[in-house]
Amino acid sequence: MNRINVSRRHFLAGAGSALAMPTLLSSGCVSAKGLTARRPLPSERLNVGFIGYGTMAHDNIGNFLNNDQVQVVAIADCNKESGLYGYRAERLGGREPGRRRVNEFYAQKLNRPDYSGCAVYADFRELLEMDGLDAVVISTPDHWHAIQAIWAARKGKHIYGQKPMSLCIAEGRAMANEVAKAGITFQVGSQQRSDNYFRMACEFIRNGRIGKLQKIVVGLPGGHSLFGKTGADASLDPLPQPPPHIDFNMWLGPAKQRPFIPGLHNPLSWRANLDYSGGMITDWGAHHLDIVQWALGKDDSGPVAIENLESDLPPRDATFNTAANYSFEVVYADGTRVFVSNKNPNGVRFIGEGGKEIFVTRGKLEMKPQELIREKIQESEINLYKSGQHERNFIECVYSGKPTITTCEIGHRSITIAHLANIGLRLGRKQVKWNPKTERFVNDTEADTLLAAPMRGAWTLNMKV
Q1: 436, 177, 390, 393: which is closest to 296 by C-alpha?
Q2: Is the peptide bond before 303 cis (omega within 30 degrees of 0)?
Q3: At 401, phi and psi to the nearest 5?
Q4: Confidence band (pLDDT; 50, 70, 90) for 272?
Q5: In the CATH hierarchy, which top-level class contains the domain 6-140?
Q6: Predicted pLDDT of residue 210
Q7: pTM of the prediction?
Q8: Which residue among 110, 178, 377, 454 is least crowded, i.e. fewest CB within 10 A of its CB?
Q9: Rounded to whole angstroms, how far apart are CA atoms 347 and 220?
Q10: What is the DSSP string of 94-145?
Q11: CA angle at residue 301 from 150 to 281, to 5 degrees?
Q12: Start-end ranges of CATH 3.30.360.10 in the chain?
């Protein structure tokens, strides 16, 4: 593969010699297999590449572009350019829209109308060969996360990885192990930990402000959404050939071979198929179940059972085969129970003693009694990680070497709960028992067979890098 010298061919060509910007240098610490995990000095810029430029990358990239410590240098996406991205099918996505956005941003910021410093690739592996690349943002469908993260870690690149972190439990464990081995910084895109409302709610629980916790109630979304797509774009009839703008074989990657189905493979709709995602249970469980773990202090552990599993799970061979309506209970060793359903209000409700409650969701923090919210957490009490803006926390930790607020291990433990529920539902069980130390089901070889997902062809977690 061609190696691209970022500082010469792309950065200087686009920026021009008159720019008063830090030089792109290589620096860092030695990681696994003798690779160099770059940790730039304060005077150096962090060179970032995006693997996938769709709905989530469109949201994330602004916080990287607007950070003066960062230079976005490349976009990799097997889609050249198409519409239908965003939650209302209102955006363009693919490597060319990504390149235009980056180049236009720096052209305006640097007053260089001819700026052209953003490279593009159809294959993420070529991006990872770029000289001077320090970090990547992985914003691809879930079935790609593990392979791309492990590949990047073995190349010594720091990773901001979108949630859900993994497609299955075995992939998450492999990712966490590889990240630890490589000594890189990893931030899971579960940004609720960087939200003051969620942090305050968890601090209040950890410090006993509502007394002994009686139960937790979690509301996640349900359904199978087409995210604004209509007509031919939402059709479930396979096409004789994939659209010309996408390398569909690369999009499928480790997932099984199948024809392009517009209503399934167009942006976001793939979340409702188990070959690519775990439905709303993993998509939103990665957020709200993560807050449960944080509040309970279980970042390095997890529950011992999933009970009272109920759903309308479609047949495995259905186009949309994730649960649209579901409920289950998450059980911890100390007896704490978490009641999860798509029928509950979206958010996390902590129910304590004497009528005390805390409800937290995006943009809202409610407490009963209301005066409870005026209480302050003292320095002598448990004070949780206060990170500020989520992408900025990742960038700061790349420089400092400190852990991010949502490490790979944390993300793995949180999404494991959602995976456990999906496994129980797929097996038609009312209950599955789990050992969070061994990360195996308790005396259940049938359930253990679903810890890993099959991979197609030459794609494996142990591919030679």
Answers
A1: 436
A2: no
A3: 80, 0
A4: very high
A5: alpha beta
A6: 99
A7: 0.93
A8: 454
A9: 7
A10: SHHHHHHHHHHHHHHHTT-TT----EEESSHHHHTT-BT--EEEE-S-GGGH
A11: 70
A12: 193-376+410-448
Q: Report how far apart the first and last C-alpha atoms of the chain are (Å, whole number).
A: 12
- β-partners of residue 50 are 75, 137
How, if at all, do strands 337-341 and 326-331 pair? antiparallel
d(Cα 68, Cα 80) in Å, to the nearest integer?
A: 28
Q: How crowded is residue 33: how many other Cβ atoms within 10 Å of its Cβ?
A: 11
Distance between CA atoms of residues 78 and 70, nearest Å = 24
- Which string of DSSP letters, residue by residue, matches 329-351? EEE-TTS-EEEEETTSPSEEEEE
C-alpha closest to that of 40 among 131, 148, 152, 132: 132
Count CB neighbours of 113 within 10 A.
9
Cβ 389 vs Cβ 395: under 8 Å: no
**Phi and psi (nearest 5°) for 362?**
-65, 120
Q: Inform me whether the pLDDT recorded for 28 exceeds 50.
A: no
Q: With contact defined as beta carbons under 8 Å apart, do 75 and 98 qualify?
A: yes
- Count the alpha carbons within 13 Å of 289 in the hemisphere toward its beta carbon: 38
Give residue 210's identity as a one-letter amino acid code.
I
22-28, long-range: CB within 8 Å, 24+ apart, which pairs? 24/71, 24/132, 26/132, 28/134, 28/156
CATH class of 193-376+410-448: alpha beta
Element (H, E) at 282: helix 279-283
Which one, of 426, 454, 173, lies nearest residue 279 by Cα? Answer: 426
Work out the mean pLDDT of the chain and round it to a whole number: 93
Can you give the pLDDT at residue 15?
Answer: 36
Spatial distance between the Cα atoms of 386 and 296, rounded to a whole number of angstroms? 17
Pairwise CA distance, residues 29 & 31, whole Å: 6
CB 255 within 8 A of CB 312: no
- DSSP letters, 147-213, are HHHHHHHHTT-EEEEPSS--SSHHHHHHHHHHHHHHT--EEES-GGGGSHHHHHHHHHHHTTTTSS-
Burial class (CB in 10 A: 0-12, 13-18, 19+), 390: buried
